[in-house]
Specification:
The complex is a heterodimer of chains A (314) and B (279). With 314 residues, chain A is of the alpha/beta class. Chain A has 13 helices and ten strands. Chain B has one domain. The chains are: A alpha/beta (314), B mainly alpha (279).
Chain lengths: 314, 279
């Protein structure tokens, strides 16, 4: 079975045949609220105890081998959702399963199945890419010799030559560091790869390299990929489906074509909307509904009217 | 079962190797701390060498004993500091480098994480203290003809278990208090040494401090080392046993209690999102 082949040296959780047909990720009504400040002293209670609903009753189903994109503005809840899937945050309510394993109850098993690339390349900056990646490989139970071979091969494919492999990471550009972070995730061949804005800061060529690698990971290694990005072109190029998240809620979900058609219909356009229009439509400060369009005559007029109302309220 | 053991072994080695690589890459800081500790130890030990002059004693002073008390004190201070810092670096270093989320997401148990980091902390602490002792020995003519080195090493290693327990407990602070936790753990270390009679018998401490001294493992390590180095007591002597059993007890209690408390703190950090922020 492909998933078991991917993790030859880990004490792999058993993914029985019937689970082949299961969803890779199942998010059910998940909510996460953060308390911004929790005063200690009694007379400060009620002061500054602001809460932020980062993820609000989100439900999402990701099929095996699917590449799903999560689009949203800054602070919309994308990274919180990724952290919940990565077992780094415990949801307040709802349930998340990865290949049938609960991220809270079966945390140890889930951690064997996943890897994550975050927007900031988290490394020991004084150490070289080789030292950082060998450390990661050993944590994921890869023997040293095999890991070294893979590290050289993956880094070379990502354009990091042998001469750079043993230099401290702090001497590398942000883009190069991000490539090493991507190499680290690929090194462990996860069955679910969580990419949190992985190509932010990369040049166009490096972005293409990463995108090719992501596709390859799915095609060759059978991986499921969840990608958050601000890059609409990237989402369009890579993702089978796209979810748009706004203020912690999923406001749209479908294939790129489906979303474009839907927005075209709602805006009364004659050609399918661009991804930019799709994104702007679903993340506008007031979601513009069909009723709004009918009421104000067109999408543009509804947008202007609702933005004016928001400014007045502020 | 065997695969799981191999995985644990590899992961333990990963932390040991990573910390060694960090020590190599931060070599300048290592030299700074080593020099700082040596200078500090020398300046304290010179107080012993000058005791007769400082006090204006008319009778002959047992300088060798005073020097030994101070050398043991500075050595334990160094060893405890380096080991304790190494253990609290389970979190401090990860916060500093911004790698905490990645390490906490890895498919390893927190216990394996701690074992790897603590083994390195003990090895690092022993090496650091040995270098310091060699330098001090070159400055002072100390009579070590009665010393029982086996007992001394045994007590230091036995005490390390409790130091690790206290260190894991202190590592909870930077886990929960992102910005001030590191400073808090320094305070814990300093207070631990103060109450343990690092350069003096604990009988000179104020009454309210003495119960704290009795629960500190450093007290028993210091007392035992003085007995072993100055009196040459063997492992089976009643004087050493009176230091050994409290160390066994504090080790048996502090390590599991700290690991359990750490697991609760980790869960709390995951509920409140405290793993996210870096130092």
């Amino acid at each position: 079975m492909a998933i078991q082949r991917l993790l030859p040296t880990l004490s792999t959780p058993t993914l029985a045949d019937h689970q082949e047909e299961q969803d890779a990720v199942l998010v059910e009504e998940v909510t996460k609220v953060f308390m911004k400040s929790r005063p200690w002293l009694p007379w400060q209670k009620g002061k500054d105890a602001r809460t932020v609903r980062a993820v609000d009753r989100v439900s999402l189903r990701v099929k095996r081998r699917e590449i799903i994109g999560i689009l949203g503005s800054n602070g919309s809840g994308k990274s919180t959702l990724i952290r919940i899937l990565s077992t780094l945050l415990i949801p307040d309510s709802g349930r998340v399963t990865i290949f049938g394993y609960d991220v809270v109850r079966d945390e140890a098993i889930v951690r064997r199945l996943i890897n994550r690339v975050s927007v900031e390349a988290s490394f020991f900056k004084k150490l070289s890419p080789m030292e950082n990646l060998i450390y990661a490989a050993r944590l994921y139970n890869l023997p040293g010799r095999l890991a070294r071979e893979r590290i050289v091969s993956i880094l070379e494919r990502l354009g990091i030559g042998a001469a750079r492999i043993r230099q401290p990471l702090e001497d590398m550009s942000r883009g190069m560091q991000q490539k090493v972070a991507i190499a680290r995730a690929f090194l462990t061949a996860p069955v679910l790869l969580l990419l949190d804005e992985p190509t932010t800061g990369l040049d166009p060529r490096s972005k293409l390299d990463v995108q090719t690698f992501v596709r390859e990971l799915r095609e060759v290694h059978d991986a499921t990929i969840l990608l958050t990005t601000h890059d609409l072109e990237e989402a369009e190029a890579l993702c089978d489906r796209v979810a748009i998240i706004d203020q912690g809620r999923i406001v749209a979900l479908g294939s790129v074509d489906e979303l474009k058609q839907e927005v075209m219909r709602q805006l009364g356009l004659s050609v399918p909307a661009s991804m930019h229009q799709v994104f702007m439509h679903y993340t506008a400060s007031h979601r513009i509904t069909e009723e709004d369009i009918l009421r104000y005559g067109s999408w543009e007029k509804a947008f202007e009217a609702l933005e004016a109302m928001r400014e007045e309220e502020e | 079962m065997f695969t799981a053991l191999v995985h644990r072994g590899r992961a333990t080695y990963a932390f040991f190797e990573r910390n060694w690589n960090l020590t190599r890459r931060y070599w300048a800081w290592e030299i700074v701390w080593l020099l700082y500790n040596i200078v500090n130890a020398l300046s304290v030990t010179f107080i012993g060498a000058a005791a007769e002059q400082i006090t204006g004693a008319k009778v002959k002073f047992d300088t060798n004993s005073l020097l030994l008390v101070l050398v043991i004190g500075t050595s334990v201070w160094s060893y405890l500091s380096v080991t304790f810092d190494g253990v609290t670096d389970i979190i401090n270093m990860e916060r500093w480098e911004g790698t905490i989320e990645y390490t906490f997401m890895a498919p390893i148990s927190r216990f394996t994480h701690m074992v790897g980091s603590c083994l390195y902390a003990v090895a690092h602490g022993l090496l650091f203290t040995l270098i310091q002792l060699l330098v001090i020995a070159a400055f002072f003519h100390i009579d070590l003809s009665h010393a029982n080195y086996l007992t001394a090493l045994f007590l230091l290693l036995l005490g390390s278990i409790s130091f690790i327990g206290f260190g894991i407990g202190a590592a909870i602070l930077p886990l929960l208090y992102t910005e001030k936790g590191m400073q808090m753990s320094f305070i814990v270390k300093a207070v631990l040494l103060l109450v343990s009679g690092v350069y003096y018998p604990i009988s000179v401490l104020p009454g309210w401090m003495q119960p704290l001294a009795r629960i500190s493992p450093a007290t028993y390590v210091l007392e035992g080392l003085r007995e072993a180095i100055m009196q040459g007591r063997p492992l089976w002597s009643p004087e050493i046993w009176s230091c050994t059993w409290p160390l066994i007890l504090t080790g048996l209690i502090s390590v599991p209690a700290s690991v359990y408390a750490f697991s609760l703190a980790e869960r709390y950090a995951k509920r409140t999102g405290k793993l996210k922020r870096n130092g």
